[in-house]
Amino acid sequence: MARILACVLMLASFTFAPARAQQLDTSLSDKQIVTKILKDCRELYVRAVGACACVDERTRNSPNCAKVLRELPESFKPFCSRKDVTLREVSMYRMQNEGFIDRRCSK
C-alpha cells in the first residue's frame, strides 16, 4: 500500500510541476534583451518625468532638466546604458518577470 501511495504522489508531482515552473524565453540573445530593457525603461521614464533622466540627455544650461532632477526621488535610477543592465536583470527578463523595469524606471 505504501508503494502505491508513493507512486501516486510521484506521478502527481510530475503532472503538476510544469504548471508551477517559470518558462524561460530563449528566443532573444542577451544583447537583444539589454536593448529591449533600455527601450522599455526609456519609454517609462519619458512618460513619468519627460527627458533629462539620463546624463547623456542633460545639458549644463538646461533649466528644465535641473528642475526635473530636483523633483526626482533618490531611488530613481533608470537603466541608461548597457552597463546599467546586469545579468540578473537579463535573467529576470527571460523569466518574464519584468516588474523590475517598472520599479526602477518610473517615478
How many alpha or pi helices? Answer: 5
Approximate shape: elongated
| Rg over alpha carbons | 21 Å
The tally of structural domains comes to: 1
Query: Helicity level, as a percent range?
Result: 55-70%
What does this structure look like?
- It is a single chain.
- By secondary structure, the protein is mostly helical.
- It has one domain (23-105).
- Helix content is 59%, strand content 0%.
- It contains five helices and no strands.
- Helix 2 crosses helix 4.
- The longest helix has 20 residues, at 30-49.
- It is elongated and about 45 Å long.
- 12% of the residues are buried.
- Residues 5-9 and 13-21 have low confidence and may be disordered.
Describe the structure concisely.
By secondary structure, the chain is mainly alpha-helical. The protein contains five helices and no strands. The protein has helices at residues 2-20, 30-49, 63-71, 87-94, 99-105.
Notable features of this structure?
59% helix; single chain; mainly alpha; 107 residues
Topology at a glance:
Layout: H1 2-20, H2 30-49, H3 63-71, H4 87-94, H5 99-105
